Automatic annotation (TrEMBL), chain A:
NCBIfam families: anti_sig_ChrR. Residues 107-196 form the ChrR-like cupin domain. This is ChrR-like cupin domain-containing protein. It comes from the Bacteria. Gene3D superfamilies: Anti-sigma factor, zinc-finger domain (1.10.10.1320), Jelly Rolls (2.60.120.10).
Length: 216, 208
């Protein structure tokens, strides 16, 4: 049961296509689980369409229309590329936007240990930082703040911090002024998908020593 | 549908001078395009694949898409390229358009948005990303006909700063962080301003 959702400002920017890539991925992963937010995204799209309708049309250059009309014949003949629906196993736990990249199972990933109780997998695909973090039961993340937006989606298990308890499907959409120290609080540990558009900001010496492990 | 929808139509009328020289369709045919008519045309296109219908949709959408892409930062030539790609994709994929699920403009602008995002990724050559951030939604909402005129007047009633935030998100395609730098506002205030604006707008949209 999802209780924490992305901020409305985040959903609005998602619908407009204005989020940094990595953050949009986390939103997409949450939307695949949350009709409530999908509904807001549809509303935000309506707002966008109304705004677009207010733009003064810019004429296309002469010939553009003839060009495209002459191309239509060719495309009709070209067989439409059949899109075979890839088979997704029922127990796949990698969120749908990441499956091209990661396959179906989180446990099959090549996790790298960063610190005791803390493993990560950095996704090679995004403009800003996108990573999976695996926190062993009872493990405490270093307390940290953010210099930019951070969006976290819990994929497995749960964690608690100053803002509450976040279970699978929940999203933490943090303002930069928030300091927090997440603790994995169930027996199975916690796996999160985390996107940032600016480096994390750790406090204190020990966490700063951890910084290189985060590859920031 | 409602007569609101019909009234909205003529605010979207293309400037006839843009079209006079190249329009192949019957004169006056382009003057009113209500959301329902556009929806019908797009559904027809999927069914009958008639080039005439395509031309009608092209005349309406291409110049709007071009403005839209230019406001997001595409220069004229790239904007046109993307418009052509978008409209070609409309032609190829219109069979999958479901008029019960979305308005024609929503469907077409989604295509344009995704192509634009792909283009941005390709420009940063290391980012040939297989991320699929805008999958075809399996979610089918109870289709609510939004009143575009109400949204427009609600936008006008927003405090100036909130309206500016909304414009930057939709027209300029700026991220929250970029907006906070542009407007010299804390990131938290950008988000709360957008949140307030969204809440006001959707309250107005919901009113019958
Ligand atoms: Zn949600």
């Amino acid at each position: 049961m999802t209780t924490h959702h992305p901020d409305l400002s985040t959903l609005m920017s998602y619908s407009a296509g204005s989020l940094p890539d990595a953050i949009a991925t986390v939103v997409a992963a949450h939307l695949s689980l949350c009709d409530h937010c999908s509904c807001h995204v549809q509303e935000a799209e309506q707002i966008g369409i109304s705004l677009l309708e207010q733009l003064e049309p810019t004429p296309m250059s002469a010939g553009a229309k003839d060009d495209i009309l002459s191309m239509l014949g060719e495309t009709t003949q070209a067989a439409e590329p059949a899109k075979p629906e890839p088979h997704v196993p029922d127990d796949a736990d990698v969120p749908s936007p990441l499956r091209h990249l990661l396959g179906h199972y989180l446990d099959d990933l090549h996790w790298k240990t960063m610190a005791p109780g803390l493993k990560q997998f950095i996704l090679p695909a995004a403009e800003s930082n996108l990573r999976l973090l695996k926190i062993a039961p009872g493990t405490c993340m270093p307390s940290h703040g953010h210099t930019g937006s951070e969006l976290t989606l819990v994929l497995r298990g749960s964690y608690s911090d100053e803002l509450g308890r976040f279970c699978a499907g929940d999203v933490a959409d943090l303002d930069p002024d928030i300091q927090h120290q997440p603790v994995a609080d169930t027996h199975e540990g916690c796996i999160c998908l985390i996107a940032t558009d600016a480096p994390l900001r750790f406090n204190g010496l020990v966490p700063r020593l951890l910084q290189p492990f985060f590859q920031l | 549908m409602t007569d609101h929808d019909n009234r909205n139509g003529h605010t979207e009328t293309p400037r006839s001078d843009h079209f006079a020289s190249k329009s192949k369709m019957a004169p006056n045919n382009s003057i009113t395009k209500t959301p329902d008519k556009l929806k019908q045309s797009l559904a027809d296109l999927g069914r009958y694949r008639d080039k005439q219908t395509f031309a009608l949709l092209y005349d309406f959408f291409a110049p709007r898409l071009k403005s839209h892409l230019m406001s997001k930062g595409a220069h004229g030539e790239m904007a046109e390229e993307l418009v052509q790609e978008t409209m070609l994709s409309v032609w190829k994929n219109c069979k999958s358009y479901d008029p019960d699920k979305s308005a024609a403009s929503t469907w077409i602008f989604r295509i344009a948005r995704n192509l634009w995002i792909d283009r941005l990724r390709k420009e940063k050559s290391n980012l040939l990303s297989p991320l699929d951030n805008y999958p075809e939604s399996s979610f089918v909402p109870a289709m609510k006909e939004f009143d575009s005129a109400k949204i427009k007047s609600a936008l006008k009633s927003l405090p100036q700063q909130q309206a500016q935030l909304v414009y930057k998100v939709y027209y300029e395609g700026k991220s929250h962080r970029e907006i906070s730098e542009d407007m010299d506002m804390p990131l938290g205030s950008v988000k709360s301003g957008l949140r307030l604006a969204f809440t006001k707008l959707r309250n107005q949209m919901g009113e019958v």
